[in-house]
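Example (one chain per record):
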Amino acid sequence: LGHTVIALDSDAAKIESLTAGRPPIFEPGLEELLVRVLATGRLRFTTDYAELAVADVHFICVGTPQRRGENAADTSYVFSAARSLAPRLSSRALVVGKSTVPVGTAARLREQLQAGAPEGVQARLAWNPEFLREGFAIRDTLTPARFVNAVAWPPAKRGVRDQRTHRAGPRPGATGSGRSGGSAGRARRKR
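Predicted structure:
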């Protein structure tokens, strides 16, 4: 799509594998797509949140497994990613949550992002949940059947509209973060 993407994960072995063009999961066509996009130089992987400071849009794409012994989602990975990302936000940055979370999570997350953001930076958060089917994730990402987003105020809405229409900002993208054994984040210079 022409965006520059930096994907972050806390698992260094996963980052090494992805950088070598070897995805840690099987999805039809993923390895070929990964190799092709890596060759363009517009995709790279890191474990260092500092590299995300250049991004315009940050996607938080982490697991929300069921809490052990409960019927509730464990959102600790979402909040951990946001805590690590917040100090690197700029005034133009938009954070987009992709993880499936319980009602009320986005409001608490925005408060956390704002508390951790640099002085004078207004944290912008939007939510765009994933609708990816196993075996069809690439197709579902590139040609989604629906695009659902939620925003709390107009500046975040503008950032989501730019993401949806693939209008690239002037700066390279960065990503949400992942957990070990979890999912890597995605970015857009898109962020």
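Caption: The beta strands are 5-8, 43-46, 57-60, 94-97, 125-127, 150-151, 187-188.
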